Amino acid sequence: MRVLVSSSPGLGHLFPMIPLAWALRAAGHEVLVATTADGVEQSARAGLAVVDAAPGLDVYKFFQESSKDSSVDWGQLRELFQTDPAKAAELVAERFAALGDQLSEGMLEAAQGWRPDLVVFEQMDSAGPFVAAKLGIPAVQHNFGAARGTQEVALYAKHTDAYDRHGVTRPTEPAAIIDIATESLGTTQIGWPMRYVAYNAGGKLPDWLLAKRERPRVCVTLGTVVTKLSGVGALTQIVDAAREMDAEFVFALGGSDVSELGELPDNVRLAEWIPLNALLENCDAVVHHGGSGSTFTALTRGVPQLLLPHGADQFDNAAMVRKAGIGMWVEESAVNASHLTKLLEDKEIRAACERVRDENAARPLPVDVVRQLTALVG
């Protein structure tokens, strides 16, 4: 079986699919990743064959320009996610579908030459379902967070011009859906359940990470996108709280400019790239932006979470974490030392984290889903 794995240009979209791609390869199937921007290099680093479906595409410039052309900019969209989530989801679908359309022609050309039997696409990718429809092969949706449902294919196809350019009928649903959200997260199971296996790329671990420590350690991260769009100002209150606490804070910000945070206290350590799953294995709590990768990686490690959502599915993830009792959702301007102390010491939160971690570990592995994909293709 030959499987085309397609992803929007975002590591939070691509990384959750890599364990399934590995499982496909280990089972003897052929895999080709189609994406662009950072996803090309990261796919290659993961040992996967990859094609750049939109060489030279500047994703951040694309979003900046699309925001100018819209009546709602990214700042307003952030507010809209809290006041009118349905309208916000529609706007996000429109923008991501337009982004995916930038990949559609390059992805189609590669697919016509490679001849896949199946497309596996992440839930916000519009190019993969188009390619599958054009080639007449099944398309399977791979969910990656709390914000997911059964209408994404139709919603994104509505805003994808490639169907009209090629005279292809827009699909209304995928052939199947792979879902990684456990039931105790307060979500309804959609499609095939699969264990979330954290993939955060590789990297050399610093000596201090594995050394014996005498006080709690808190990981602080804003993922790979927020710092580029909004800077690190959301962490101002975290820095102030750190000054009051006998705990170590690891700011894993990927080399971002932190000058706006002022002078950092001695118990705050700046870190370059460290695979998040390895970092969280050696932390007692995590503060993050609510990205699906950060949320679910923390979930697999049983680590209490404090979320500072900025936009898109981050609000869904924050609501899910709060509802499941595995952490807190606090406005960034309101965070103080008491919130972080509770995150480290609350026994009910930690018990809930351990329960959800164990439930995720009991779900079918990616290799089990490979069998289902094989049966689907026939």
TrEMBL record:
Note whether Transferase occurs among the keywords: yes
Gene3D superfamilies referenced in this protein's UniProt entry, alphabetically = Glycogen Phosphorylase B
Look up keyword Transferase and say if it applies: yes
Q: Which domain of life is it from?
A: Bacteria
Q: Which SUPFAM superfamilies match?
A: UDP-Glycosyltransferase/glycogen phosphorylase
**Coiled coil start-end:** none
- Where does the UniProt annotation place the signal sequence? none
Which UniProt keywords are given for this protein, alphabetically ordered?
Glycosyltransferase, Transferase
| CDD domains for this protein | GT1_Gtf-like (cd03784)
Family annotation (Pfam families): EryCIII-like_C, EryCIII-like_N
Report domain Erythromycin biosynthesis protein CIII-like C-terminal positions. 237-376
Q: Which PANTHER family does the record cross-reference, listed alphabetically? A: STEROL 3-BETA-GLUCOSYLTRANSFERASE (PTHR48050), STEROL 3-BETA-GLUCOSYLTRANSFERASE UGT80A2 (PTHR48050:SF13)
Designated name of the protein:
Salmochelin biosynthesis C-glycosyltransferase IroB
**Gene name per UniProt:** iroB_1
